[in-house]
Amino acid sequence: MSPTPPARRLRLHLPRRMFAQVLLMQVAIAAGVAVLATGLFLAPLSDQLDDQAMRRALSIAQTTAAQPQIAEDLTDTPATAGGPVQREAERIRTATKAEYVVVMDRRGVRWSHPTPGEIGRLVSTDPGQALAGHDVMQIDSGTLGRTARGKVPLRDDEGKIVGAVSVGIAYDSVRARLLHAIPGLFAYAGGALAVGALAAWLISRRVQRQTRDLAFSDISALLAEREAMLHGIREGVVALDRGGRIRLLNDEARRLLGIGDEAAGRSLDEALGEGRTADVLAGRVTGTDLLTVRGQRVLVANRMPTDDGGAVATLRDRTELEQLGRELDSTRGLIDALRAQDHEHANRMHTLLGLLELEMYDDAVEFVGEVVGDHRATAEQVAEKIQDPLLAALLVGKATVAAERGVALSLADRTGLPDRLIDPRGLVTIVGNLVDNALDAAAGTPHARVEVELRAEGRTATLRVRDTGPGIPEEQRELIFTEGWSTKQRPAHRERGIGLPLVRRLAERQGGSATVGEAAGGGAEFTVVLPEALAEALADAELEPALTLPSDPRPQPVAEEESR
């Protein structure tokens, strides 16, 4: 035979749903409060009823002893069932509905009693305190059972104690009153419990709707998962309350925004400072995939309002993507330059072929010399004035693109920049963005021209880019440096309205400035001043050759050999 399996223990399982758990807990609390209140009320009720009964008995005894006729009859008449003391005591007992009214002399002999046979006998309880002149209240047992008693001394006209009066009220009547009150108390307690249960049900229903009927374990698991998710994802998350104060920041948001835990509980303007980033996160700028610059980072922000009046904003780092976009722009510019050169080269080759076919050999030689000389003069003129190779290469490429677009790109006569830049890549970004904007503005205008001026004074580098375009209205001269603002159509691969803000940010990073004004003769003139752009490796005297330009823009043969 197989062994008998052990009996399973009975285990009480609480309901798993939050609605049922909250309802059960609240009903239990309401029931406990009702029982406790009933118990607290009943506990002193018995004592209160006893005290009331004893005081009532004492009051009847005092009223009886206050009648002088009873004291006089006690001393003048014998203790008989038909005596005046018995008749007066019974009258008082009947009128007050007391259990008994007993009048006794100083020896403790009864002169009145509800049972006439007890008259003339000694009382069953000690009357010593009353005969000694004290009022007595007590619960005691006598010949008539358990009663609430009151005993007082009986005095004659001269105040001498001649006996005592003892009045009793049946204790069972007091208990009956107590028992009679209990059903009413339980009725009130039951009504309170019913109201509490209804309130608990309504509250539980509200909690159920707000928590979507999840169990406590589910909510705990969701909170743990939320914390892990928020701090594990590679997007910044910022939660705001209805007042616009920061309620939550994950690790990525702290990194992207450059703030710490102390920002929690503060407004966006306090934590981030006034600017576009705070405006975007606060919802003062609306839209999707909004661009903003924070420090050296280009961020994409999206904002979603919540039901409680707050919002959750997400941040993505677009810095690398913007760099790729700028590199793509540079690549496209290089392709355009190569295409323009290829087109120009094809035309010149066709011209050269025609000259050769016409046997105009001298003209062909002269034509080739001019072409080679022009290209060499342009490249060497830029290299002479701009000694930084990155900037020089950029401007040579931009000149070719400008020629293809029908815009003359030139360097100002005062241009001169030595090869000791601290951040050449940053200056390349600044010059590239400003030249591209100038080419876009000047293209298609009569006598289209863009002029670039780069000068060095001590450690300060000053850049000016002028164009012959329509110019910038005065009311928009600060607006154009705002992230996301642009008059151009958005390209397919990235957002517009980020180039000029980056120019200003890069300038301000070096303690400089970026402004725009009106160029002489019309158009726009952008000015960038970089106070700490140059290193101190060279003396100021070494700048003179770069600032002194030859009268003939085409380099001389000696200069060619030196440059080579």
From TrEMBL:
<dbReference type="InterPro" id="IPR003594">
    <property type="entry name" value="HATPase_dom"/>
</dbReference>
<keyword id="KW-0808">Transferase</keyword>
<dbReference type="InterPro" id="IPR005467">
    <property type="entry name" value="His_kinase_dom"/>
</dbReference>
<dbReference type="Pfam" id="PF17203">
    <property type="entry name" value="sCache_3_2"/>
</dbReference>
<feature type="transmembrane region" description="Helical">
    <location>
        <begin position="20"/>
        <end position="45"/>
    </location>
</feature>
<keyword id="KW-0547">Nucleotide-binding</keyword>
<dbReference type="InterPro" id="IPR035965">
    <property type="entry name" value="PAS-like_dom_sf"/>
</dbReference>
<dbReference type="InterPro" id="IPR016120">
    <property type="entry name" value="Sig_transdc_His_kin_SpoOB"/>
</dbReference>
<dbReference type="InterPro" id="IPR013767">
    <property type="entry name" value="PAS_fold"/>
</dbReference>
<dbReference type="InterPro" id="IPR033463">
    <property type="entry name" value="sCache_3"/>
</dbReference>
<feature type="region of interest" description="Disordered">
    <location>
        <begin position="541"/>
        <end position="564"/>
    </location>
</feature>
<dbReference type="InterPro" id="IPR039506">
    <property type="entry name" value="SPOB_a"/>
</dbReference>
<dbReference type="Pfam" id="PF02518">
    <property type="entry name" value="HATPase_c"/>
</dbReference>
<keyword id="KW-1003">Cell membrane</keyword>
<keyword id="KW-0472">Membrane</keyword>
<keyword id="KW-0902">Two-component regulatory system</keyword>
<dbReference type="GO" id="GO:0005524">
    <property type="term" value="F:ATP binding"/>
</dbReference>
<keyword id="KW-1133">Transmembrane helix</keyword>
<keyword id="KW-0597">Phosphoprotein</keyword>
<feature type="compositionally biased region" description="Low complexity">
    <location>
        <begin position="541"/>
        <end position="550"/>
    </location>
</feature>
<keyword id="KW-0418">Kinase</keyword>
<dbReference type="InterPro" id="IPR000014">
    <property type="entry name" value="PAS"/>
</dbReference>
<keyword id="KW-0067">ATP-binding</keyword>
<dbReference type="Pfam" id="PF00989">
    <property type="entry name" value="PAS"/>
</dbReference>
<dbReference type="Pfam" id="PF14689">
    <property type="entry name" value="SPOB_a"/>
</dbReference>
<dbReference type="InterPro" id="IPR036890">
    <property type="entry name" value="HATPase_C_sf"/>
</dbReference>
<feature type="domain" description="Histidine kinase">
    <location>
        <begin position="423"/>
        <end position="534"/>
    </location>
</feature>
<dbReference type="InterPro" id="IPR029151">
    <property type="entry name" value="Sensor-like_sf"/>
</dbReference>
<keyword id="KW-0812">Transmembrane</keyword>
<feature type="transmembrane region" description="Helical">
    <location>
        <begin position="185"/>
        <end position="203"/>
    </location>
</feature>
<protein>
    <recommendedName>
        <fullName>histidine kinase</fullName>
        <ecNumber>2.7.13.3</ecNumber>
    </recommendedName>
</protein>
<dbReference type="InterPro" id="IPR004358">
    <property type="entry name" value="Sig_transdc_His_kin-like_C"/>
</dbReference>
